[in-house]
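Course assignment 3, question 2. Fill in each field.
Student: A.L.
Task: Predict the tertiary structure for the chain below.
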Amino acid sequence: MRLRVLIACVLAPAVLWALLPLPSSGQKLQAKIDRARDQVERKKGTERVLSTDIAAYSRKIDGLEARQSRIQADLDAKTAELVSLQDRLRDERARLTRLRERLQQSRTQLARRLVEIYKADKPDALSVVLNSDGFVDLLERGEFIQRIAENDREIVLGVRSAKSESERTEAKLDRLERRQQRVTAIVLQRRNEVAQVKTELIGVRQGKQNALGAVREQRHEIEEDLEAMEAEQAKIQAQLSGVPAGPVRQGSGALIWPVNGAFTSPFGMRWGRLHAGIDIAAAEGTPIRAADSGRVVLLGWTGGYGNYTCVQHGGALSTCYAHQSRYGTSMGASVGKGQVIGYVGNTGHSFGAHLHFETRSNGSPVDPMGYL
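Answer field:
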């Protein structure tokens, strides 16, 4: 008796341990699904942040573009001013050349006249010349001007005028050249600013768009894996339950749910395009029921939908069932609400057995959740 009690005490913990539930493959799959869903949500959060950043940078880009327009207008004005200055410089250089030629001619005439005066042997004029302190002093001395003839006076005054005007033109030309240099520097600076603004615009926009595109691509890959795992989970659940099709599931709307399964994807934009229905995960071969009575108006392979059936109900409403493994009705047949019209499959563009269910009004997709 004591031996039996001792054996029971020894074996009891082992028996209890054996009876404890061990992590199943279904639990592991659910953990993967939960992790994938969490990753999808994190990616969506990152996308929202990047979209907000892009919107903020777009506003900044609008401001930079306005600034670029102002710089371009200033650049155009400075360029026009530079062209005008260059025209003036050409005119002033040509004028200065003419003045220098005129001055040289006047000096030549004056020199010739002085020689004539010297040869005429007029000591009083010669004494003025000899007593002058250089050529400039000679021109300034009033007694010289009083002693030469009227023609000589015109020559001297012409030399004075040409020399004075030449000096003024030289000074003016120097100012214009300095101004031209300043305007040229401003034009170059403005051009550099325009180039820098364009570089900033391209860099900011491209960087954010690249980041957003990468995150979206990663999310799409995770969502594809998630869809496949959810379909596999539904298949496992259906196999474990041993019930091919559950009871009719009636929601709050006029339609019944076509299959009993996990709701995995809503109606709306997905992966950059419209997801025109909802996805319901179910094991392959699960019967699909007509959501309402009506007439089969489309039945056959339809691109990414795979095996596809559409039932026209009263009014403008119709329902459609995609990715079927096989059909349970025929083209033109009348079906009743809850009647089996097909079986869940994985045909067309699908990553796991599930039903893609659509509601259409006058042929246009509408959210099925408004009818279920």
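Instructor remarks: Residues 55-209 form a domain with the Helix Hairpins fold (CATH 1.10.287). The chain has six helices and 14 strands.
Grade: pending
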